Amino acid sequence: MITARAAATFEPVGRSVASARTFVRDTLQGWGLTDIVDDAVVLTSELVTNAVVHSGTAADVVCVRAETGARIEVTDRYPERELPLQTTSRPISNPDREGGRGLLLCAALASRWGVEYTATHKQVWFQLEFPDRLAGTRSAGPALPAEALPVTDARVRVAVTQIDRTGLISAWNDDAQELFGYAAEQIIGKPLTDLAAWPHTPGTGTGVAEALQLSRWEGSYGIRGADGRVIPVYASHLRVRDADGDPSTVCLLVRERERAVLQSPQRTPGADAADSAERGPADAFEVSIGSPAPDDLDGLLQRTVERARDMLDGDAAYLLLATDDETELEVRASTGLTSARQRFARVPVEAGTGRYGSARMPAVHEDLSIVPGAVPLLANTGLRSVVTVPLKVEGRLTGSLGVASESAGRYSNEEALRLQFAADRIALAVERARLTELERLRRNSLSFLVEASDLLAGTLDRDQTLALMAQMTVPTLANWCAVYTVADPASDPELSYVLHEDEERIDGLKALLTKIEPPEQVRTGGALLWTAPSQAAHAAALRTSLRGLSLGDAARPSSGPSASLATASAVGGETVVLPLVARNRVIGMLTLGKSTDGHFRQENLELAEDLSRRAALALDNARLYSERTAISQSLQRSLLPPELPDVTGVEVEVIYRAAGEGNEVGGDFYDLFPIRDGAYGFAIGDVCGTGPEAAAVTGLARHALRLLAREGFGGPAVLERLNTAILDEGARSRFLTLLYGELWPQEDGSAELKVVCAGHPLPLRLRQDGSVEPAAEPQPLLGVMEDLELYEQTVTLDPGDVLLCVTDGVTERREGARMLGDDGLIEVLTTCTGLTAGAVASRVLRAVERFAAQPPSDDMAILAMRVPERHDA
């Protein structure tokens, strides 16, 4: 049987997922189902994400409470998008995939779940059963051993007595007789004040007689029993009115150590006084022994302000907590105020309101309209009088509690003393809960910073670092974020990245920030307020609204005003700027903003400051790495030939791969250049090792070859002089294998080559019949011996022939103990008959890459030259 139902619809935007989580959490907590809230919120988040993000439609969320459990239904309007259900024949292989994860969670967490399709919608539902516990339990303490439980000398008795309008006792129950020893006939008709051993709660000025006239009162006093002993009791008074309209006070009294709380039940909308009268006094109250502790600090604070408001019969109440340095107070809970916009707002302690000018002392404001701005938190709320008292623990200020009324002169020193007494009782519990929350926040902050450091350390890309900075702050610390970068101290900040928790507002936010001056460059630590974005947004919204009004409803743009108002609400809250300082230089600013009059908590600002220091160093590292990479790549590109010349009558193709991340040139190199009319020089070589040192020898070799060849030296003379130049480098020299040759295209369609192979893999000649043979003989490599006697060999390429030259990165390609080798290369080349030079080089490269699963670890160069056949030309 359904006992309660709640429903809400969420638009197909990213923020709806968070709104749906809040709706389900608030609904279940309102029903007292705290034990299943966490599981329900997790499942709802996944299912609503599937609806509004993946399906792209609005989502209807329905919470249904039954006798045995709670059922959550999530419906979207895209039935054609079938959900990926997991079956034995079609398992969901990857749990991290976007689709299907919510159903896996349903299967794991829910007691029952299902999917229903209709022609217009698709519904996913799940049900969570209630745990086995007593009905009505909202929170529970730990299980304690018997010896740790409180001790009572007898069963707990609750004395219920009713006092009429004249102060005389009109009702006296059996527990009252047992507690105090008076029979009902002895006590009815007598004033309660005759039994009071002391007239009021110690520390307050309110007597029992005055307390009986108040709408609601709680406190301690003593009752003198029939045997003359004084029995300390804790009393809860509630003023009621009977069917005839006569007022009376119902009192619940227990022994001081067995304190009870008298609570009024929540009325349903539309209930009237007659309904209350029919229920009678016994039905109007709910008695619970002890005070159920809230699950967290916010719950305790909210309960405290509600009790304070009721105790003084006020219209509103609020509670502020002190910062660690006790210089400011931060709004943490309120009730009865028209807006929650003051949450986390701060006020100074010593510049506080009241006759003492300090929040460290109680204060009473009889009429706020006489002193406008005396209590800024209550500005424009219609509240006239207010009483505030400090919360102190061992003499140290921990907070402030205030109760306000719409009537002027509502409160006096008597109410201040009562409120102070209540604040003294709750201060220690609040401080303990605050310290517990602070410890939890610090642990979460450490985890957040560790994860952020890992992410920032995992990249040296500037753009990715900027994106990570913004994504880590939104929405964890702020509703939106903008990162400004500074190229040098003399340049203006540049807007580099913008992110909003609502992706639809990013473009509007970026347009707004580009129209205003960037924040000033500051080196000081900590967050500084920046009001320009919110002022510009509100000004733009006002101008647009006025323009729309002047155009009239018929001619008003449909999207202009609403878009401007949306932008104003997106950046309408507090905005702070944190400098990004690395290596004693300001390299940018991290800007964080709240939406719709939001305020930052100090803990979040301190966490953002820690994050900004780490992010600044990561951003500067990315800058340095980018500059170093750009310089390195520029130098490396200077070692490669600018472009290959067109050789008449010969096809030439070169493929070059440098090993190592970020390397464009390594120890392998190639070149093809004109020597004189009709003659070309070509070279392919391999310097020992890789990296910048090898690249330096590459530059020496390539430029020396061109210079010596154009001076008219033959192949052996060119290599001998290059050998001398390498040896002259001394300790920096490295040995070099080099294949150098000169190419002369002939008029008959052939090509004549003169080559010298100095320790290099031999060039291979592919004939038209598919045969492959070495085209040169091996000779000593360069950079080892001073006196070399080299010679050149002549090779003639007939039409259709191919000359393939490679470095040892090709032939020494390995996988385990296997190596491609010369034989493997020859085998690949035999399959290239009839292919162009480009196709030959590509087939060789493909064979090298496929030979092993791992990427090549050595530099690699492939030079293919082919003399085309007559019909190819």
UniProtKB/TrEMBL annotation:
Residues 163-190 form the PAS domain. CDD domains: HATPase_RsbW-like, PAS. Residues 262-281 are annotated as: Disordered. One of its GO terms (biological process) is regulation of DNA-templated transcription. InterPro entries: Bact_Sigma-Reg, GAF, GAF-like_dom_sf, HATPase_C_sf, HATPase_dom, PAS, PAS-like_dom_sf, PAS_fold. Keywords: Hydrolase. One of its GO terms (molecular function) is phosphatase activity. SMART domains: GAF, PAS, PP2C_SIG. PANTHER family: STAGE II SPORULATION PROTEIN E, STAGE II SPORULATION PROTEIN E-RELATED. This is Regulatory protein. It comes from Streptomyces bingchenggensis (strain BCW-1).
